[in-house]
Design a protein that fits this description.
Elements lengths: L4 E6 L5 H11 L3 E4 H9 L3 H8 L1 H13 L6 E4 L8 H10 E7 L2 H7 L16 H15 L2 E4 L5 H13 L1
Length: 167
């Protein structure tokens, strides 16, 4: 398979979907959001899926959705919890360049105001800070490229994505 895809990973609020759409237009690629794929396959909003079936089911469904991907020339925005599945991340890495949109905890908290409905997987008894600290090393582990997005505008992040993957 052609590794012409750009796979965006990162914390909730890092700009994966927002910047991904614009980067796809700039790079003349398609855009694909794996959260939308998961919602379509499960016929449920992400938060409803988490609330009704639990986090373990969510992780399994997300992995299954990711493993079904067979696309080229696409910017792929992933769900923030995709990094919990080694199989899913290995599949994504086989499809293209994995770009981690890094965001500090305080910036994440400022950017997101719909925690209860957004579909953010936080394990029972854990806080958002716990989730952040748990995910951080996993994003770094799977990233081919890391872009710091803390002080970037959407346009600046898009510019860095494009520059990073096109040279």
């Amino acid at each position: 398979m052609d590794k012409s895809n750009v796979i965006l990973i990162g914390m909730p609020g890092s700009g994966k979907s927002t910047c991904g759409v614009i980067a796809a237009k700039v790079m003349l690629k398609n855009f694909f959001d794996t959260d939308l794929l998961l919602q379509g396959l499960e016929q449920s909003r992400l938060q409803e899926l988490i609330d009704s079936r639990g986090t373990e089911y969510f992780y399994e469904a997300e992995e299954k959705a990711i493993l079904s991907l067979n696309i080229e020339a696409t910017v792929i925005a992933t769900g923030g919890s995709v990094i919990y599945s080694q199989k899913a991340m290995e599949h994504l890495r086989s499809l293209g360049t994995v770009v981690y949109l890094h965001l500090g905890y305080d910036t994440m908290m400022k950017r997101i105001n719909d925690f209860t409905t957004r579909g953010i997987v936080v394990k029972g008894g854990s806080s958002l800070l716990d989730m952040y600290n748990e995910r951080l090393p996993l994003y770094e582990k799977y990233a081919d490229v890391i872009i710091d997005c803390d002080s970037n505008t959407v346009e600046e992040t898009v510019e860095k994505i494009v520059k990073t993957v096109t040279g």
